[in-house]
Design goal:
By secondary structure, this protein is an alpha/beta fold. It is built from 7 helices and 7 strands, in the order H-E-H-H-E-H-E-E-E-H-H-E-E-H. Helix 1 runs parallel beside helix 7. 31% of the residues are buried. This is Undecaprenyl diphosphate synthase family protein.
């Protein structure tokens, strides 16, 4: 009952929302609370956030194979793009939700450089726009939310350079809507400078 009241208070105070959000969780988080992915995507959709991304950090993506059916249920409420191993699948309609399992930002940048070299790019012609055109994830989150005590990963290392970071003091398995709304309230109170 108290959380419902707190939710309503937080919702009434929200007036500036991020357009794009990235949640960073671990493989163990996903195994502990696989349904939270759907729930968080639903919260984003209901608030009118344009797109959400979930990065699941794991050195062994195969360990999360049993979670794939649950992840795919997101396509019933949104347009899901799932990156798993070397595959990419897209299904559903509505708000864009991307799930990337075991992907690395450093690996993505190295892949961009390799592809530019394969395409015979003149090094003098490489600038930020060219590099961005080679990125796998063309996604610049306004807000990156990290749950629990783990450190951030290198995922979206290029794309998130101007993102606002919010570290939740609760683990993914215990994530409630009020925790998410607290992150949004914090986001709207920040003066974004985009590196200036």
């Amino acid at each position: 009952m108290i959380y419902r009241l707190y939710e309503r208070i937080l919702l009434s105070d929200l007036h500036t929302l991020p357009e794009q959000i990235c949640f960073m969780i671990t493989g163990q988080d996903m195994l502990d609370a696989p349904d939270n992915l759907y729930r968080a995507a639903e919260w984003c959709r209901d608030l009118g956030i344009r797109s959400a991304m979930f990065h699941i950090s794991t050195p062994d993506p195969a360990r999360l194979e049993r979670c794939l059916p649950r992840i795919r249920t997101i396509s019933s409420i949104a347009r899901l793009t799932l990156h798993y191993r070397e595959t990419k699948e897209v299904r559903g309609e509505g708000m864009n939700v991307t799930v990337a399992i075991g992907k690395s930002g450093r690996e993505e940048i190295a892949c961009c450089v390799r592809r530019m070299a394969e395409d015979g790019m003149d090094p003098d012609s490489v600038d930020e726009d060219v590099l961005e055109s080679y990125l796998t994830f063309k996604y610049e989150p306004d807000l990156v939310i990290k749950t629990g005590g783990d450190h951030l990963t290198d995922f979206l290392i290029w794309q998130s350079v101007y993102s606002e970071l919010f570290f939740l003091d609760v683990n993914w398995a215990l994530l409630r809507k009020v925790d998410f709304l607290r992150a949004l309230r914090d986001f709207q109170s920040r003066a974004r400078r985009f590196g200036r």
